[in-house]
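Structure tokens please, single chain.
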Amino acid sequence: MKKEQNNDGNIRNSNENSKDEKIEKNKQKAIEKNIDKSTEKSTEKNTEKRIAIVTGASAGIGKEFTKLLLQEDVEEIWAIARNQDRLNSLKIELGDKVITISKDLSSPTEIWTIGELLNKHKPVISYLVNNAGIAKMGSYQDFSFEEIVETVGINCTAMVTLCTLCIPYMRKGSRILNISSEASFQPLPYLNLYAATKAFERSYSRSLNVELKEAGITSTAVCPSWVDTDLLLKEYNGKKIKFPGMVSAELVAKIAMRDTKRGKDMSVCTLYVKCVHLAAKLSPQKLAMETWVRKIKKYVM
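Here you go.
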């Protein structure tokens, strides 16, 4: 069952499209005005503004990263999420250092506007946390075309695009944290699409770390187990799901920040996940898949 980031799927006429375009333009102007005010204050102190960017920042792991980044040497945290109301609540809770940016990362056009903001303000990006993601459990036939495109778009395309947009604004010591998962360690039938996108994230992040080594930039794949957030599916087909190795979003963010500062290309949160990672290396993947299916068949079959 899908827990986040849904398009309404309605067919709109030209007037509605025009209205949406006006709303989007007004929203973009409001974001730029918000950043401009902060930039004016920053310019009085120095010529280069240091920032952090967090996607999926309004709740869960993203919110915990945002809290931790308040303690880092950055002047602003660009908190990106789709839900403006949640972003407003985040700003009220954490203060004016948080700059809220409402974007739908399933839309390449909206991702590109983040690049335009960077080009306009030319900050130094100290941290990029790609946390936005969506998940759904079920058979391949349970996914609509739109769900497939959206899942791959947010979990994979948005992450890679934001890395590419942000790296030119990074300096030696900057850090990228891409939130992958324990699910990336082996194929997982009935969680297939999600696990595959997380495997992509982990592979991309670790390879990127090698490419960025000479520039002194660290790229870390964060691989927690089941995290107690709104995204986590609590039940399926009316049956409550038991999750081994459940961990808090706060702990995931804390350990990931420690690991990326140590230059690690992968952050494996908790002893349980380290054991799962080792088992995935030593066990045949066919056996791992059979074991997984036995555990979840009462939910999906």
